[in-house]
Amino acid sequence: MRQQIATKTGTGSSNVIATDTYISPFNVGFGVFVTGTANITIQHTFDNPQTVASPTWYNHPTVASIALTDAGQDGNYAFPVAAIKILVNSGSGTARMTLIQAGIA
Fold first, then answer.
1. Partner of 47 for a Cys bridge, out of 26, 52, 54, 65, CB 3.0 to 4.6 A?
2. Which of 22, 70, 17, 9 is closest to 43 using CA atoms?
3. Which residues pair with 84 in a beta bridge?
4. Closest CA to 51 of 4, 18, 97
5. Are the C-beta atoms of residues 38 and 90 closer than 8 Å to each other?
6. % of the chain at pLDDT higher than 90
7. What residue numbers bound the domain in which 19 lies?
8. Total structural domains within the chain
9. Is 0.85 surpassed by the pTM of this model?
10. Phi, psi of 9 (to 5 degrees)
11. Angle at CA 83, nearest 5°, toward 59 and 74?
12. Is the pLDDT of residue 105 over 70?
Protein backbone atom coordinates (compact mmCIF):
# COMPACT_ATOMS: atom_id res chain seq x y z
CA MET A 1 0.00 0.00 0.00
CA ARG A 2 1.25 3.44 -0.76
CA GLN A 3 1.43 5.79 2.17
CA GLN A 4 -2.04 6.72 3.35
CA ILE A 5 -2.67 9.87 5.38
CA ALA A 6 -5.44 10.79 7.80
CA THR A 7 -5.71 14.19 9.48
CA LYS A 8 -7.95 15.74 12.11
CA THR A 9 -7.98 19.25 13.58
CA GLY A 10 -9.85 19.68 16.85
CA THR A 11 -11.89 16.98 18.56
CA GLY A 12 -13.50 14.08 16.73
CA SER A 13 -12.50 11.36 14.29
CA SER A 14 -10.39 11.56 11.15
CA ASN A 15 -11.15 9.95 7.85
CA VAL A 16 -10.89 6.14 7.93
CA ILE A 17 -8.04 4.29 6.24
CA ALA A 18 -9.06 0.82 5.03
CA THR A 19 -6.44 -1.94 5.06
CA ASP A 20 -6.02 -5.11 3.00
CA THR A 21 -6.74 -8.02 5.33
CA TYR A 22 -5.70 -10.56 2.67
CA ILE A 23 -2.00 -9.61 2.77
CA SER A 24 0.17 -12.06 4.72
CA PRO A 25 1.92 -11.13 6.85
CA PHE A 26 -0.41 -8.23 7.60
CA ASN A 27 2.16 -5.72 9.02
CA VAL A 28 0.97 -2.12 9.24
CA GLY A 29 3.15 0.67 10.61
CA PHE A 30 1.98 4.18 11.44
CA GLY A 31 3.28 7.44 12.79
CA VAL A 32 1.17 10.29 14.08
CA PHE A 33 2.40 13.85 14.61
CA VAL A 34 0.51 16.60 16.41
CA THR A 35 1.02 20.25 15.51
CA GLY A 36 -0.17 22.29 18.46
CA THR A 37 -1.63 20.36 21.39
CA ALA A 38 -4.02 17.42 21.32
CA ASN A 39 -4.81 14.24 23.22
CA ILE A 40 -5.12 11.46 20.65
CA THR A 41 -6.02 7.80 20.35
CA ILE A 42 -5.41 5.57 17.34
CA GLN A 43 -8.39 3.27 16.80
CA HIS A 44 -9.09 0.21 14.66
CA THR A 45 -12.12 -1.83 13.69
CA PHE A 46 -12.68 -5.39 12.56
CA ASP A 47 -15.89 -4.33 10.79
CA ASN A 48 -15.87 -3.30 7.14
CA PRO A 49 -16.55 0.46 7.30
CA GLN A 50 -17.90 0.36 3.74
CA THR A 51 -20.68 -2.08 4.63
CA VAL A 52 -21.27 -1.53 8.37
CA ALA A 53 -23.01 1.75 9.21
CA SER A 54 -21.62 2.03 12.75
CA PRO A 55 -18.40 -0.01 13.09
CA THR A 56 -17.16 -0.93 16.57
CA TRP A 57 -13.87 0.88 17.25
CA TYR A 58 -11.13 -0.36 19.58
CA ASN A 59 -8.23 1.64 20.99
CA HIS A 60 -4.68 0.79 19.97
CA PRO A 61 -2.96 -0.90 22.96
CA THR A 62 -0.14 1.67 23.31
CA VAL A 63 -1.24 4.79 21.41
CA ALA A 64 -4.36 5.65 23.40
CA SER A 65 -5.09 8.87 25.31
CA ILE A 66 -1.64 10.26 24.53
CA ALA A 67 -1.15 13.99 25.09
CA LEU A 68 1.17 15.47 22.46
CA THR A 69 2.40 19.02 21.89
CA ASP A 70 4.34 19.47 18.65
CA ALA A 71 5.46 15.85 18.94
CA GLY A 72 4.91 12.43 17.41
CA GLN A 73 4.29 8.81 18.32
CA ASP A 74 4.49 5.64 16.25
CA GLY A 75 3.08 2.14 16.46
CA ASN A 76 2.07 -0.88 14.44
CA TYR A 77 -0.47 -3.61 13.87
CA ALA A 78 0.82 -7.17 13.46
CA PHE A 79 -2.69 -8.64 13.27
CA PRO A 80 -5.35 -7.95 10.64
CA VAL A 81 -7.72 -5.04 11.20
CA ALA A 82 -10.19 -3.70 8.65
CA ALA A 83 -9.61 0.03 9.13
CA ILE A 84 -7.69 2.55 11.23
CA LYS A 85 -8.39 6.17 12.23
CA ILE A 86 -7.33 8.94 14.60
CA LEU A 87 -9.60 10.04 17.45
CA VAL A 88 -8.74 13.46 18.87
CA ASN A 89 -10.05 13.32 22.44
CA SER A 90 -9.30 16.95 23.32
CA GLY A 91 -7.28 19.94 22.18
CA SER A 92 -7.28 22.23 19.18
CA GLY A 93 -4.14 20.92 17.46
CA THR A 94 -3.91 19.01 14.21
CA ALA A 95 -3.05 15.30 14.23
CA ARG A 96 -1.62 13.80 11.04
CA MET A 97 -1.17 10.03 10.73
CA THR A 98 0.85 8.37 7.97
CA LEU A 99 0.17 4.65 7.55
CA ILE A 100 2.05 2.08 5.47
CA GLN A 101 1.04 -1.57 4.95
CA ALA A 102 3.78 -3.96 3.86
CA GLY A 103 3.38 -6.20 0.85
CA ILE A 104 1.42 -3.86 -1.40
CA ALA A 105 3.09 -1.79 -4.07
1. 52
2. 17
3. 17, 44
4. 18
5. yes
6. 90
7. 4-101
8. 1
9. yes
10. -110, 130
11. 55
12. no
Query: Do 18 and 9 touch, CB atoms closer than 8 A?
Result: no
Q: What is the 3-state secondary structure (H, E, C) of 27-66?
A: CEEEEEEEEEEEEEEEEEECCCCCCCCCCCEEECCCCCCE
Cβ atoms within 10 Å, residue 72 = 14
Q: What is the CATH number of the domain that holds 72?
A: 2.60.120.1090
Cα(49)–Cα(57) distance, integer angstroms = 10
DSSP states along 2-21: --EEEEEESSEE---EE--T
User: 75-90: per-residue pLDDT in tens?
Assistant: 999 999 999 999 999 9
Residue 57 has pLDDT above 60, yes or no: yes
Q: What was the pLDDT predicted at 103?
A: 81
The number of angstroms, rounded, from the C-alpha of 12 to the middle of its chain's C-alpha atoms is 13
